[in-house]
Write a structure and sequence with these properties.
Layout: E1 2-9, H1 17-28, E2 35-41, E3 46-52, E4 66-67, E5 73-81, H2 84-93, H3 103-114, H4 116-122, E6 125-133, E7 138-143, E8 152-156, E9 159-163, H5 181-190, E10 204-205, E11 210-215, E12 222-228, H6 246-260, E13 267-270, H7 275-287, E14 292-297, H8 307-317, E15 320-325, H9 331-336, H10 338-341, H11 351-361, E16 367-369, H12 374-378, H13 382-392, H14 397-407, H15 413-422, H16 427-437, H17 443-450, H18 478-505, E17 509-511, H19 517-523, H20 528-531, H21 539-545, H22 565-570, H23 574-580, H24 593-604, H25 610-626
Parallel strand pairs: 13-14, 13-16, 14-15, 16-17
Antiparallel strand pairs: 1-3, 1-9, 2-3, 4-5, 5-6, 6-7, 7-11, 8-9, 8-10, 11-12
């Protein structure tokens, strides 16, 4: 786990890159507080900074940038290659010996011997990687198949920039940082920005499973090829499999968790009352009885608190349980700090809770296993099952009107039933999204609407309607399609962004064992009737978890990892909200200020549009820090 920044400058400028890299180091120090190393090649005008958080081979021999033994390749990796010991065995069979304690050294020599494509086929890990071919004056920038680690890049004025963090771009005077209005509108729709876009024009994020090849020959920077590898395939409905090999799935999960426990430093787990984290913790405890589990608690908000049930699970497993009890002390300070943690606008409602839990956990361990990815793979969201059922049964105008009328009846048993199905916090907000989605013309539009905020759809001035284009195939299993969309969009651009930025800000590495290609290949071809057996979400994981925990510990409903932001905005954050919503603070001519004023007034009178108000506050804090 690390942070790096690099420039290839083929412009005519004569900049002080020692000074630029020093500024980049200071900006990225939190991502790699253990060691720092620079690489300056004035002849080829390559300038690199690397800040390291050490997990394998804690000595200086594991430092980066690292150059291959044949001097041809130079590598920077942010992340971990979990199966590097297996890759090293392959090298040694061919009488190639390297620093076998370092996953980076093994990866570098493997690429040098067998090629990058073979490495990407054989490696198991999470990574954002840059590999230079110094002989051919080319480099590849690569993301793992789930985009677990960040990598930004830009080509401007014959300079190529890449970095683990967008803020480092502010340290280079030759880059234009103009707000991308389409990305800004997407942020207000989703709370995040989908790759390859970023908040800035002409600056991109590497996409999941993407490999970008750049040439810097003859003092010219140009893109040679961009391609995807090992992408998650979506099958037609009649090609899906109805045969479930639960023994194999369980074996893959166990092996993945064991592999993710590989480390030269202490590893723990995040534990809630949910299926995913309970299964990860239960299996991890088989291999390490001294493992620490960490949970979030709310002493004054029992509807959000899962720590008591998490303690019952940890007691049953016989492991150490640590609870961080969140309170509202220093809440203003924590909200202001979001622009430091996330260097572009990002407004996931649980971002502050997660950052606090990471800070608390980092005092005891250096790495954490999470359940990220299980919902997307095993059908854990209500939209995958109930949402699709509603979509399928409301395809005519009369049924749509009747349904919209029925869910508009507040206070009835019917609406309470929907509340229970869709959420434990903010049910009416999600019901409103569902109501807004019913008239969707197809499943793709339904997905976009049900996962978007509805009140700020036209907040950004002077942009065209956002278009989300996908290569749809006919004869879809709609539930599998929704899961596939979440795996390719929501997971990498929201959940994994939150996980990486908040953990790395606190010097903590988060690992996600469910993000395993063998598991994807086993689950993706399954018919949704198998995924949602007995009409339940995550039925496969429920069955597997029953092998590890007694029935009484499996029956508790997951409360969701959400924050009471409606209450925060009306009370603890009222002063800071009023400050950033002053007319002079909104004078950057990006927004329809009449729409903003209307929504702020409606929020003050009790309308449940707090997610939009929260996103506006987060953006304002970010904008006034960096601009």
């Amino acid at each position: 786990m690390c942070g790096f920044t690099g420039f290839i400058d083929n412009s005519e400028s004569n900049l002080d890159y020692q000074n630029i890299l020093e500024k980049c180091h200071k900006a990225l120090f939190f991502r790699g507080p253990d060691q720092n190393k620079r690489y300056l090649d004035n002849e080829n005008r390559i300038y690199l900074n690397f800040d390291r958080l050490s997990f394998f081979d804690l000595s200086e021999d594991g430092n980066q940038p690292m150059i291959s033994k044949n001097k041809r390749y130079l590598i920077l990796i942010n992340g971990e290659i979990y199966n590097f010991r297996e890759l090293n065995k392959i090298l040694e069979r061919d009488n190639i010996y390297t620093n076998k304690k370092s996953d980076v050294a093994v990866s570098l020599e493997f690429i040098s011997k067998y090629g990058l494509d073979q490495f990407l086929k054989d490696a198991i890990g999470m990574f954002a990687m840059v590999i230079f071919d110094l002989l051919n004056k080319e480099l590849n920038i690569i993301s793992d198949q789930f985009s677990q680690k960040p990598l930004y890049y830009s080509i401007q004025k014959n300079i190529f920039f890449f970095s683990s963090d967008l803020r480092t771009l502010h340290n280079h005077q030759n880059f234009d940082l103009e707000i991308n209005k389409n990305s800004l509108q997407e942020f207000f729709n989703k709370g995040y920005i989908n790759s390859p876009n970023t908040i800035y024009q002409n600056v991109n994020k590497i996409e999941p499973g993407c490999k970008l090849c750049i040439s810097y020959k003859n003092k010219e920077i140009k893109v040679l090829k961009k391609q995807r590898y090992n992408t998650h395939q979506l099958l037609e409905k009649d090609k899906l499999d109805s045969k479930l090999d639960i023994t194999r799935i369980k074996s893959i999960i166990e092996k993945s968790i064991l592999l993710h426990l590989e480390s030269d430093v202490p590893i723990g787990t995040f534990l809630s009352s949910g299926i995913d984290s309970s299964l990860v913790t239960a299996i991890a405890s088989k291999y390490n009885k001294n493992i620490n589990a960490f949970s979030l608690g709310f002493k004054n908000s029992p509807s959000y608190d899962e720590s008591e049930h998490a303690k019952l699970i940890s007691d049953h497993l016989g492991i150490n349980h640590n609870v961080y009890y969140f309170d509202n002390n220093y809440l203003e300070e924590k909200v202001l700090k979001t622009s430091d943690i996330y260097s572009e606008p990002f407004s996931d409602s649980s971002q502050i809770l997660f950052a606090d839990l990471c800070e608390f956990s980092s005092k005891r361990v250096k790495g954490i296993l999470t359940g990220d990815g299980a919902d997307e793979l095993f059908g854990g969201y209500h939209r995958h099952l109930t949402g699709v059922n509603i979509f399928n049964n409301t395809r005519d105008k009369l049924t749509q009107k009747l349904f919209i009328f029925l869910i508009g009846l507040s206070g009835t048993k019917l609406i309470q039933h929907f509340y229970n199905m869709f959420s434990y916090q903010y049910p009416s907000e999600k019901i409103n999204r569902l109501k807004n989605s019913i008239s969707a013309k197809n499943i793709d539009e339904f997905y976009i609407l049900i996962t978007s905020q509805i009140h700020f759809r036209d907040i950004v001035k002077n942009i065209d309607d956002l278009k989300y284009e996908f290569n749809l195939i006919e004869n879809l299993d709609y539930s599998k399609y929704m899961m596939w969309k979440d795996l390719n969009l929501y997971l990498p651009n929201d959940l994994l962004v939150k996980s990486d930025r908040a953990s790395m800000y606190n010097g903590l590495e988060v690992r996600s064992p469910f993000l395993n290609l063998d598991l994807v290949k086993e689950i993706m071809p399954l018919d949704s009737k198998i995924i949602f057996k007995r009409g339940k979400t995550k039925s496969i994981l429920r069955d597997i978890l029953s092998d590890y925990l007694p029935k009484e510990l499996l029956s508790v409903k997951k409360m969701g990892f959400s924050a009471p932001i409606n209450n925060w905005l009306k009370n603890d954050l009222k002063k800071i909200k009023e400050h950033f919503f002053q007319s002079k603070m909104l004078s950057h001519e990006l927004f329809d200020n009449n729409l903003i004023k209307k929504n702020i007034e409606e929020f003050n009178y009790g309308k449940e549009n707090h997610f939009e108000i929260w996103s506006l506050l987060i953006f304002q804090i970010w904008f006034h820090k960096y601009h």
